[in-house]
Amino acid sequence: MQKIKISGLIVAGALLSGCAAKQEITSFEGDIPNSMCIAHHEEVRPGFLTALEDALYKNGINSQVVSATYVKEHGEVNPKVNLEELKSCPAVLFYTAHWNWDLALYMSYANIWITDSENKNRLAQASYISRHGLDKFIDAEEKVHELVDSMVGSSTLASK
Questions:
Q1: How far apart, in whole angstroms, are the C-alpha atoms of residue 65 and residue 21?
Q2: Residue 18 has pLDDT above 60, yes or no
Q3: Is the full-model pTM beyond 0.85?
């Protein structure tokens, strides 16, 4: 019986310790535009878009939301945006995110990337993936702010 209790404690300790989340961030190199378009992703919870707008604004970046279609092809999400809507956008922010249940709803994945207006050059990217453990239960809005801050925080706004 004692061995079972000790084994249970070891397993519980292993599950509770260790990092449950992974982040990868590529920040802007040099100046960033002081405005950008956000390609709306209808399948992502609405609060995510609001958090993106707030995080950009907090960093001195104006944003406008444009319509987009996100198509999953060959395991990758490929967004399509009407180029007419992007005429006034020096950069475009795309995003995707997923939530899962495990005792409570939590954001299990988020990917935010910014390209030039022609979607040819990736300018910055931030991704978040949660794994096992209790630290996956984060505030999604705070995580979005953290990811955006990491992408644009060390850069300076262009004076355009």
A1: 29
A2: no
A3: no
